[in-house]
Amino acid sequence: MGIDAVRRILADLDATRSQREELYKYFHQHPELSMQETLTSQKIVEELESYQIPYRRIGRTGIVATINNGDGAVVAFRADIDGLPIKETSGKDYASHAVQEDESTGALVSTSHACGHDFHIMSLLGALQALNSHKNDWQGTFIGIFQPAEEIAAGARDMLENGVAQELPRADVYLGQHVLANLPGGHVGTRVGAVLSAAFSLKIELTGRGSHGSMPELSVDPVLLAANIITRLQQIVSREIAASNSAVLTVGAVHAGAKSNIIPQTAELLINTRAFNQDVANHLKEAIERVVNAECEAARCPEPARFTYYDEYPLTSNDAEVTHRVRAAFDEYFPGETHDMDQVPASEDFSIIPSALGVPYTFWGLGGFADPDSAPGNHNPAFAPDLQPTLDRGLEAAVVAASAWLVP
């Protein structure tokens, strides 16, 4: 990587900082729910038009911006753009007070960027602006992918269904980053192999036979059935998963009954799983269904259990060659501020597009807080990373990583 050329591409950081900080605050104060990012995507489009960068809308709120700059590598960089249904409690003077109607429920909910996607938007916009302003210092094609609905694992699939592949001609690499609380502020962390877990959520509907609480012999008690299932499910990880692997199986909600002297007709369980190995993830799914079906048979249920899967995230496993190349670029540009990142049990739909297209990828972490030991984690109502150096460093990391392919 030609580090002098990279420094020239990033030479405008001081000049653009004030404008970028104001734009960041706009995105922070106007978070929108997954697949409802209408204002967000419109603001991104307005910025791209002001930079005179060609773009195409993909689906309802996705956007692909492309800078063609002669022969060379094709580098794609993804930023997720959706917010969360969480009321912000960060205390920032630019905190979100936004309220939005959730189209799936019709309810009004407070929204915030409690996962840091506002920084992801700004990192990509800033990288596009910098690369577009300094075309003499690099060559090839840089593609910015503004992806909706990461939080519900729907956005990457939606972009694929709406033709994003046509906007990624012969892409050589697919890059992405995520602001995190567990890295020192302004530092970057990389990892080869599994970095984010595979995950799925599951609703299980159990059907019993209702009865008066004084006559349990006439019932098939779905509450007792749910309790037996919950106890048995906890043995999957402890007794079916090898100690050399890791897995999480959480029963996050149980819904059944309304009165103490009524044995209800139905019960519902909500389950979430995580694993750093796809075979383990597949085993969890098989084992859950096996346990539930066996317990239902033992309880004499009049109907089989119903399983509804949702929020399904694939394993994010970084390509070794790509990751080493990005890490070398980071080490050169950010000496003393790069780390070997631990596995993160959170999950992402980042890998869905490159995996579908056969493009190698890497995904790294960006430290967002000066004091990571006391920082709130992602999805915490108080999660609002330090404005600086996070804003500048996210832009720099995007350019430095892409330059490993674009700068001779």
TrEMBL record:
<dbReference type="Pfam" id="PF07687">
    <property type="entry name" value="M20_dimer"/>
</dbReference>
<feature type="binding site">
    <location>
        <position position="117"/>
    </location>
    <ligand>
        <name>Mn(2+)</name>
    </ligand>
</feature>
<dbReference type="InterPro" id="IPR036264">
    <property type="entry name" value="Bact_exopeptidase_dim_dom"/>
</dbReference>
<dbReference type="InterPro" id="IPR002933">
    <property type="entry name" value="Peptidase_M20"/>
</dbReference>
<feature type="domain" description="Peptidase M20 dimerisation">
    <location>
        <begin position="200"/>
        <end position="297"/>
    </location>
</feature>
<feature type="binding site">
    <location>
        <position position="379"/>
    </location>
    <ligand>
        <name>Mn(2+)</name>
    </ligand>
</feature>
<feature type="binding site">
    <location>
        <position position="178"/>
    </location>
    <ligand>
        <name>Mn(2+)</name>
    </ligand>
</feature>
<dbReference type="GO" id="GO:0046872">
    <property type="term" value="F:metal ion binding"/>
</dbReference>
<feature type="binding site">
    <location>
        <position position="115"/>
    </location>
    <ligand>
        <name>Mn(2+)</name>
    </ligand>
</feature>
<keyword id="KW-0378">Hydrolase</keyword>
<dbReference type="InterPro" id="IPR017439">
    <property type="entry name" value="Amidohydrolase"/>
</dbReference>
<keyword id="KW-0479">Metal-binding</keyword>
<dbReference type="GO" id="GO:0019877">
    <property type="term" value="P:diaminopimelate biosynthetic process"/>
</dbReference>
<protein>
    <submittedName>
        <fullName>Amidohydrolase</fullName>
    </submittedName>
</protein>
<keyword id="KW-0464">Manganese</keyword>
<dbReference type="InterPro" id="IPR011650">
    <property type="entry name" value="Peptidase_M20_dimer"/>
</dbReference>
<dbReference type="GO" id="GO:0050118">
    <property type="term" value="F:N-acetyldiaminopimelate deacetylase activity"/>
</dbReference>
<feature type="binding site">
    <location>
        <position position="151"/>
    </location>
    <ligand>
        <name>Mn(2+)</name>
    </ligand>
</feature>
<dbReference type="Pfam" id="PF01546">
    <property type="entry name" value="Peptidase_M20"/>
</dbReference>
